[in-house]
């Protein structure tokens, strides 16, 4: 999870450097982050999406974080009672 946090901070720094003003960066940032969040696999099942949205899964750092947490939590569970 620390790597995912570092990626998010890096994206924030990059957007801030590109746009220069904090107000403009805060207005533009959701345009990039919300699709990555939506197609990360937590809110929408990626297999239910049309095939042309599949590449967004691989660009989403949320998908990698969600997969890491899911593997960590469920790898030792054999049965659910």
TrEMBL record:
Pfam families in the cross-refs: ABC2_membrane
Topology with respect to the bilayer: Multi-pass membrane protein
Record's keyword terms, sorted: Membrane, Transmembrane, Transmembrane helix
An MF annotation (GO) of this entry: ABC-type transporter activity
Gene Ontology, cellular component aspect: membrane
Domain ABC-2 type transporter transmembrane: 1-74
Localization per record: Membrane
InterPro entries according to UniProt: ABC2_TM
Residue stretches spanning the membrane: 12-44
Protein name: ABC-2 type transporter transmembrane domain-containing protein
Annotated organism of origin: Acrobeloides nanus
């Amino acid at each position: 999870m620390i790597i995912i946090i570092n990626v998010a901070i890096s994206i924030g720094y990059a957007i801030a450097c590109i746009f220069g003003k904090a107000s403009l960066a805060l207005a533009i940032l959701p345009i990039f982050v919300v699709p990555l969040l939506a197609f990360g696999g937590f809110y929408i099942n990626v297999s239910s999406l049309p095939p042309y949205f599949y590449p967004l899964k691989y660009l989403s750092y949320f998908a990698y974080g969600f997969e890491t947490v899911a593997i960590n939590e469920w790898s030792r569970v054999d049965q659910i009672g």
